[in-house]
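Appendix B, example 12.
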Amino acid sequence: RVVIDPRRVTAVRARFPGPVVRVYQEVGDRVPKNAPLADIESNESLTVYTVRAPLAGTVLARLTNVGDVAGAEPLYRIGDVTALQIELKAFPDQRT
């Protein structure tokens, strides 16, 4: 099976908890490093801050929607799909 190099996949979380007020990216979108992903209103200061992509890659999962409360759970999963690996399973008697 073909998989993305796990060292090139990241779960993106909010820095501070609060409601999600805007989402910018969808699954399959290619994003450059520092692209905006979501706007969060901080519960403490009530200011809105933007969560940005920590690496360039493809949005593998969008795990939030407007109105959700961001906390410790990931908002997005982003991966570099140019770094793929092939995983093969072989039994000892299949070796040549």
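The radius of gyration is 17 Å. DSSP finds no helices and ten strands in the chain.
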